[in-house]
Amino acid sequence: MVLKTKPVLVTPVLPILSPENLLREAVLPCPPCSTLASLCQGFSKSDEALDGPLSLSEDSRSGSSLSNWSLFDDDTSSDDIMSEGSAIDNDEGKIIFSTSEHDCILFNTELQNMAKDNVLPGQEPLCIIKEIPAKGLAMVALQKLYPGDIIMSELPLFVMPLAVFDGDEGEDWLDRATNKLSCQKRELLHSLTDCRNPADPTTLGRFYTNCMFWGDDITVCPVMARANHSCRPNAEFLPRVDLGRNELRATYVIEAGDEVTINYMAMAEEGSDVREVRQEYLRRLYGFQCTCKACTLQDLELEADDEVREELKELQARGSHNWTQPEVLGFLAGASKIQGKLSFIMDTMEECWAVASDQTLKLDYCLKGLSLALTVYGQGSPKATEWKERMVELQLWADCYLPQHG
Predict the structure, then answer these.
(1) How far apart are CA 23 and CA 113, in angstroms?
(2) What's this model's pTM, rounded to 2 decimal places?
(3) Helix, strand, coil % (nearest 5) of the chain?
């Protein structure tokens, strides 16, 4: 699903923990991963998969929490989703799958390959790409995930210099880069959405729709790009240039079977705005009407959500460098209510920490910033290390000053 478009490329950002959890020093461990069997074995004209949901083999179901999983929604068969004649024999006697079914197999095979290559954090994928009726392909969690858990870690297909991205030679550059890809990687790229021209997609359109920042440059990670949008997301992607890969991390508790979603919008702009503004932006830039949980609130719930967002926009208009301590706490509480992106919250806390003149307040902001950095980027990351160094300096001050002055 779409992540970015060329005119509005913004720094990737994510959702948030509640304020009472901002001081967590460790990320909760991820439970053992379930087994995901191969999704592309044993398909033939006589297979029952053509008469019902495309599911895992019987052998793989024994003892696995995936016993009820299929590539399609449990109540919807592949025949219900596919158009008539979408799974037929060609002249060579080979099965021709529908586009959605083929893409599910393609992306789930790549998830398996990522696990074998140790790009994924566990032995098996933590999510699956499956068809959801009336929505299309979606990323669904295979087990319960906690804030900070790495859902996937994907290597970029290639890195486009920002000057090329902003210039007029992007198409030629992209053609050369695409020709160097393996057949499977090229097919992954060509299976993505072109939101500006869905009826006749181009490679350039697919890239501009799904690209992500990579330091000062641009890249695309096609499996990660399958995460759909929500104005109340539960995950966030971020570039780990220091590790040579992009990470998709859970930023809220995600139950097994929940869709993994991200926010396409910048929190400093439309991402924290009211429903009408968000939906207009998504229609104009991505070509769809958002029907996420936040966009389908009604009556008093909608009024309460809009009120929180309006208060946040007022605070942002004043500038975080002008906030009082109660306003900082109000920002954290409001951002938590709308599930604001964690990276945005962390960056805001950094601004508050930088301008705080009171050392005790500075220490408090540093604790919150460090907790966020550990959840968003993880132990040993440059960002977490930067916050830890600040904490060491402030702790030295606290150890020397507070005992003497109370």
Answers:
(1) 36
(2) 0.74
(3) 45, 15, 45
Report CA torsion sign: 120, 124, 128, 129: positive
Question: Under 8 Å CB-to-CB from 377, ≥6 apart: which residues?
Answer: 238, 240, 383, 384
- Euclidean distance between CA atoms 167 and 347, whole angstroms: 29
d(CA 299, CA 74): 32
Residue 300 CA from chain centroid, whole number: 29
Enumerate residues 6+ apart whose C-beta is below 8 A from 388: 370
Tens-place pLDDT, residues 221-232:
999 999 999 999
Q: What is the pLDDT of residues 21-77, one digit of tens each?
A: 443 333 333 333 333 333 233 323 333 332 333 222 333 323 333 333 444 344 333
Domains plus CATH for the chain?
6-262 (2.170.270.10), 296-405 (1.25.40)
Helix, strand, or coil here: 189?
A: helix
Strands (E), 117-156: 127-132, 136-141, 150-154
CA distance 260 to 280: 23
Burial of residue 277 (number of CB atoms within 10 Å: 0-12, 13-18, 19+): middle
What distances in angstroms separate CA 196 from CA 35, 55, 172, 388, one per listed residue? 37, 33, 19, 43
pLDDT tier at 122, thresholds 50, 70, 90: low
The answer to whether the CB of 195 falls within 8 A of the CB of 210 is no
Q: Are 139 and 228 in contact (CB under 8 A)?
A: yes
Q: Tell me the sheet residues that pair with 132.
A: 136
Residue type (1 letter), 116: K
Task: Please name which of 22, 30, 289 lies closest in space to residue 141, comparing C-alpha atoms.
Answer: 30
